[in-house]
Structure formats: structure tokens, C-alpha cells
Write a structure and sequence with these properties.
Radius of gyration: 28 Å
Shape: flat
Oligomer: single chain
Number of helices: 14
Number of strands: 0
């Protein structure tokens, strides 16, 4: 009657109201109202406890809270799909056909382990529609069926998950590298792998050289593994040529940036000082993020301090305005 059921249909609502009225006639209005009040209290307490537990989990373990939120969203999406399938039977038939085609695709061109890497990379991918399209193009590059791509995307709610704030940039990079390895292992010929290597080698070199902002051992080892897979596929000579080219480009880029900073220090010292300050602030922020990842309680305390400082600043502004 309260409309809190997962199967929230008018038929069930009316039937429950009829059963409730029959019970009311049998046990009396007072006893019936007392039972309704007790049920309402219990439901409110249950909701409050659940919300409090979710709030505590978001503070103590943000990743688990994000996973729980994602599961709830998936459950709601599934309920909405079931409701639409009930209202439109032809839609349900078409959806089952798409799912069967997706399963037949999954049993086809890719091996089990690499298919899992591919799907993991798709639904743990970068934020934004543009990045999603880059993934689709990368998959198409190595000859995955064109018709299967949108079905994978829709089946795993790719565009909804691509905006998830809980996915960290190093997780996105790991997903891209795993996708690269899966595509290289399942490519039809050497030419396709060479195109993939040309596109991805600068990013792999950046991680292997330790020049990334997210400088973790896991990313280094993963990039080395992917690089060795590409080396096996395209040959040692082509692989070494690509690495030398990446090294030259990285050196040229660093030299140009340093030269531009030196010229700016001569022509506009104030702008150079501001740029230097911004770089120092960025490094400090990166160091804080790294410490927050290693010590979660430190992050909680820091957020509390920042919120308290903000409240005090707002109070000072209000006092000054008065």
C-alpha cells in the first residue's frame, strides 16, 4: 500500500488495500490502526538504519560504498527493464535476441582470459562520451565485429558507468593497457598489431620510464608486460625502433617545455612565478592524494579540517558584511 515494493503495480496496491480492509472489519478499526502505526514505525527505523549504515560505509570504505551504489543502480535498471518488458512484449523479445547475439559473440573470436580483459576495460573505462568513443575505435582497430560493439556498450551500461567519479585515473590506465594486450593477442595479422603499437607505445613508454603522475609499481609492471606482448607480435627491431622514437619525442618535449619556461622567466617574471607556484601546488596535491590512498583515515580528518576551515571563513565573511 505504501508503494515501497519492488513490484510496484496498481493491481498489487488495490489487492493489498482490499485485504487490509477485510482485516480491519474482522479485528476492529483501533487494532488495525495500531498495527499500521507499528508497521510505519518499523519501516521508518529500517530505512534510517540503512541510510546511516550507507553513510558510515561511505566514510570508512568509499570503494565499497561506490560498489554498493552501483549494484543498487543496476538493480533499479533491471526492474525498469522488467517493467518495460511487461508493458511491451516485443521489446522483451528483441532484447533477448540481442543478449543471445552478445553471448554468441563472447563465445566466438576471443579466448576466455583476454575476453575478460576486454570486457573489464570496456566497463571500467574513462569518464566521458569522447573517451568511450575512443575505446570503441580501439576495439574496432583490431577487427572486433562492428555490430557487437554497441550491444556490449548497452549491455554493461557503459555510458552510465563512464561518468562514475569513483573510478581513479590509474584504474582507467590499467583498463586501457589490459584492452591493448587483449586486442594484440587476438589480432588477425601483424599490420593491425603494428597500428596498435604505434598508437599505444608512447603511453606505455611514459609509464615504464616512470614519468607518469600516477607512478605505481603495478602500472609499471603492467606496461612492461603489454610492451613484451607487442614485442612478440611485431618483432624486436620494430619494437626497439618505436621505443627509440618515443624516447626522442619525450626528450624533445621536455627540452621545449624547459626552454619555454626559461624564456617566460626573462620576458615575464610574474607569470613565470605564478606558473612555478601552480606546479608546486599540483605536486603538493598529488602527494596528498597518494597519502590519502595509503591512509584512508588521514583523508577523513583532512576533509573534516577543510570543511571546518570553510565554515569559519564563511562566518568571517558574514561578520564582515554585517
Amino acid at each position: 500500500m505504501a508503494g515501497k515494493s519492488a513490484f510496484d503495480t496498481e493491481e498489487l496496491k488495490s489487492l493489498s488495500s482490499e485485504v487490509s480492509s477485510i482485516l480491519k472489519e474482522k479485528i476492529g478499526a483501533k487494532a488495525h490502526s495500531d498495527l499500521l502505526v507499528e508497521c510505519s514505525k518499523k519501516a521508518t527505523e529500517k530505512t534510517t538504519k540503512r541510510k546511516q549504515a550507507e553513510a558510515d560505509l561511505a566514510v570508512t570504505d568509499p570503494q565499497a560504498a561506490a560498489l554498493l551504489k552501483r549494484k543498487k543502480m543496476e538493480k533499479k535498471t533491471e526492474q525498469r527493464k522488467r517493467k518495460l518488458d511487461t508493458e511491451r512484449p516485443f521489446r522483451a523479445i528483441k532484447r533477448r535476441q540481442r543478449e543471445s547475439e552478445l553471448l554468441s559473440y563472447a563465445d566466438g573470436p576471443l579466448a576466455d582470459e583476454h575476453r575478460l580483459h576486454l570486457l573489464e576495460a570496456v566497463f571500467a573505462s574513462c569518464k566521458g562520451r569522447e573517451r568511450a568513443q575512443e575505446f570503441i575505435l580501439l576495439v574496432e582497430l583490431v577487427g572486433v565485429m562492428r555490430t557487437a560493439i554497441p550491444r556490449i556498450v548497452s549491455a554493461f551500461d557503459f555510458y552510465r558507468w563512464s561518468h562514475d567519479e569513483q573510478i581513479r585515473p590509474n584504474g582507467k590506465r590499467k583498463a586501457i593497457f589490459k584492452l591493448t594486450a587483449a586486442c594484440a593477442l587476438n589480432a588477425g595479422n601483424e599490420e593491425r598489431v603494428l597500428k596498435l603499437a604505434v598508437a599505444m607505445m608512447p603511453h606505455l613508454y611514459r609509464e615504464m620510464a616512470g614519468k607518469s603522475a600516477f607512478d605505481t609499481e603495478e602500472l609499471k609492471s603492467l606496461s612492461s608486460e603489454v610492451s613484451s606482448i607487442l614485442k612478440e607480435k611485431i618483432g624486436a627491431k620494430a619494437h626497439s625502433d618505436l621505443l627509440v622514437e618515443c624516447s626522442k619525442k619525450a626528450t624533445e618535449k621536455t627540452t621545449k617545455r624547459k626552454q619555454a619556461e626559461a624564456d617566460l622567466a626573462v620576458t615575464d617574471p610574474q607569470a613565470a612565478a605564478l606558473l612555478k607556484r601552480k606546479k608546486m601546488e599540483k605536486k603538493t596535491e598529488q602527494r596528498k592524494r597518494k597519502l590519502d590512498t595509503e591512509r584512508p583515515f588521514r583523508a577523513i580528518k583532512r576533509r573534516q579540517r577543510e570543511s571546518m576551515r570553510k565554515k569559519l571563513d564563511d562566518a568571517d565573511v558574514e561578520l564582515f558584511e554585517e
